């Protein structure tokens, strides 16, 4: 299990924010929307700065999130963790002993029930609940799975962070640069 020393995990949505991420005190970084051609050098540079990088495999432009794509991320890019909405991708990451984060969108009660079944079947290392501003759902997902929860999506204020953490999240992800400090 990874211990988040900081309760905020910067999420890179725009490459212009990469330098600010590296300058931060945060140990973990999330790459959301990236190009396959940039990944290797970005991850290598982040590792030189003693950062651990989680890649959202579903959002890498030019990468198919299948067994070969995941092997590429692990063996060639040298990522520290994989994030995905797909249970099969989480299973592949765990098979390769890479930290696996199941991204779970809670759109309605049916989606919640369906996603809980997937999480209980694939047993990710962590679950990212989106949107992360639904404290009761964060608590419910944690109680039903026993898996650590990261809150993400629509985190806009320090109060959003405090509410998510107060309801059981171990960390929050945000692309809002103002909340990285």
From TrEMBL:
It holds the Pfam family G3P_antiterm. Gene3D superfamilies: Aldolase class I. Keywords: Glycerol metabolism, RNA-binding, Transcription, Transcription regulation. Transmembrane segments: none annotated. One of its GO terms (biological process) is glycerol metabolic process. It comes from the Bacteria. GO terms for molecular function: RNA binding; transcription antitermination factor activity, RNA binding. The keyword RNA-binding applies. SUPFAM superfamilies: GlpP-like. Regulates expression of the glpD operon. In the presence of glycerol 3-phosphate (G3P) causes antitermination of transcription of glpD at the inverted repeat of the leader region to enhance its transcription. Binds and stabilizes glpD leader mRNA. This is Glycerol uptake operon antiterminator regulatory protein. The lineage of its organism: Bacteria, Bacillati, Bacillota, Bacilli, Bacillales.
């Amino acid at each position: 299990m990874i211990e988040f020393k900081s309760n905020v995990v910067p999420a890179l949505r725009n490459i212009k924010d990469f330098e600010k991420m590296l300058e931060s005190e945060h140990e973990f970084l999330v790459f959301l929307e990236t190009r396959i051609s940039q990944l290797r050098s970005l991850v290598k540079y982040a590792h030189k700065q003693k950062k651990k990088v989680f890649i959202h495999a579903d959002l890498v432009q030019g990468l198919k999130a299948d067994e070969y794509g995941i092997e590429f991320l692990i063996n060639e890019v040298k990522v520290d963790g994989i994030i995905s909405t797909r249970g099969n991708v989480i299973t592949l990451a765990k098979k390769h002993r890479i930290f696996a984060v199941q991204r779970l969108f809670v759109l309605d009660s049916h989606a919640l029930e369906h996603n809980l079944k997937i999480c209980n079947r694939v047993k990710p290392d962590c679950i990212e609940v989106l949107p992360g501003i639904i404290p009761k759902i964060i608590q419910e997902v944690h109680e039903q799975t026993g898996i650590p929860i990261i809150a993400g999506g629509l985190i806009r204020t320090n109060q959003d962070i405090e509410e998510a953490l107060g309801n059981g999240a171990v960390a929050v992800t945000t692309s809002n640069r103002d909340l990285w400090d």
